[in-house]
Amino acid sequence: MNPSPLLHTMLLFFFFFLFSSTHSSHLTHNHKATISLSFPLSSLPLSTNITSKIFTTSLSSTTSNNYNFKSSFKYSMALIVSLPIGTPPQIQQMVLDTGSQLSWIQCHNKVPKKQHAPTPSFDPSLSSTFSPLPCTHPVCKPLIPDFTLPTSCDQNRLCHYSYFYADGTYAEGNLVREKFTFSRSVITPPLILGCATESTDPRGILGMNLGRLSFTSQAKVNKFSYCVPARRTRPGPVPTGSFYLGNNPNSLGFKYVQMLTFSQSQRMPNLDPLAYTVALTGIRIQGKKLNISQSVFRPDSGGSGQTMVDSGSEFTYLVDEAYNKVKEEVVRIVGPRMKRDYVYGNVADMCFDRGDVIEIERLIGGMVFEFEKGVEILVPKERVLADVGGGVHCVGIGNSDKLGAASNIIGNFHQQNMWVEFDVANRRVGFGRADCSRLTK
Ligand SMILES: *[C@@H]1O[C@H](CO)[C@@H](O)[C@H](O)[C@H]1NC(C)=O
Ligand SMILES: *[C@@H]1O[C@H](CO)[C@@H](O)[C@H](O)[C@H]1NC(C)=O
């Protein structure tokens, strides 16, 4: 089904454009071009609490402050892409996050000693297209409804932001305008970005949600997709997957589910209207459909219960009612082997010791997340358990309520080895089976 490995290699190492007369893309100076850019993507552990930050930023896009991310993970996997920013381009590593809005780049060299900088931080003085955003810009207002970044005017009349996270770390800097320079002919207009002058994290964030200031919206990306490589289970090179902006040549095999969309005026306190929300309909374990009402996976009148596809979350999270049904079934199958009184990161309590892993995988078998029209995410038995360190392996699902979130969240742990396409223009999310790391060989 997949094109030859050689073709993929070419796609990955050269920018690849498909031209079509029917669409126009704002990503380019050449009008009438439907763009297709591809980049290597890797799934890397972050030593910082960045997962918690992404949650905080995505959850704070709702009006309510009821939900704050409470826990932290020592070992969180984030999807990392390297993108060319500025003129001439400087390559910047960014965490791909479909759950948040504003993109950030690192504009300082103060990386904490222990974390070696993955790439040099962005140097504004070397870019001819960089400009700071003046305080008079409409975005530099502290309380515009869909954008809750706290801003102020600094002594140079520039728009300053500072962001403090639930875990006590922070980032601050200026809002700026800068272009993404993919090639000579494929250049975005100047986009509003955060340019961090102080921060505790070594990488930037590529905010890809539906908000008007996300990279997706500002660059008018009509679709994007990624393929998360399966995690390596033993030491070796980090496997590389792919990230596409625009058309994906593999998309013929994708199966789509409609996105549930919400108007900005429909303000429900616990709903994130900017997330990629899909209608999960059920969960199967070992082929057995769990008795979970479908309404648990959809927003209620207060907005709780939406199901979002979030590349910035490692684990999948289920609201209490669904989590308990999954746990009930896991306990029924392997209850006596479960680690007693053990809770990983305050959210996941279906855990096992290393020695039991193969047997537990065999007993639990595969898991399936079901959507409308027979679209499914198949989780094979060898990817039901996540290695959380210290010889402990847990079912890669956490309890949203313990997280302090009101949503069901499909995390990147359950997006391994498949294409996930966010077709913004057609308001749908596509899934396609793939061997993501083989794409690059
Ligand atoms: C992560 O968060 C926890 C608690 O919120 C904190 O104790 C820990 O120092 C943080 N780790 C890093 C690397 O920032
Ligand atoms: C399914 O769950 C509901 C409520 O949780 C319960 O009332 C019902 O009896 C269950 N059905 C089966 C077949 O277990």
Automatic annotation (TrEMBL):
Q: Which residues constitute the signal peptide according to the record?
A: 1-24
Show the GO cellular component annotation of the record.
Answer: extracellular region
- Keyword NADP among UniProt keywords: no
Gene3D superfamilies recorded: Acid Proteases (2.40.70.10)
Residue ranges of the Peptidase A1 domain? 79-432
**MF term (GO), any:** aspartic-type endopeptidase activity
* InterPro entries registered for this protein in UniProt: Pepsin-like_plant, PEPTIDASE_A1, Peptidase_aspartic_dom_sf, Plant_Aspart_Prot_A1, TAXi_C, TAXi_N
| Alphabetic keyword roster | Aspartyl protease, Glycoprotein, Hydrolase, Protease, Signal
Q: Please report a single Pfam family linked to this protein.
A: TAXi_C
Example of a GO biological process term? proteolysis
Record carries keyword Signal: yes
Similarity-based family: Belongs to the peptidase A1 family.
> What is the protein named?
Peptidase A1 domain-containing protein
Organism field: Lupinus luteus
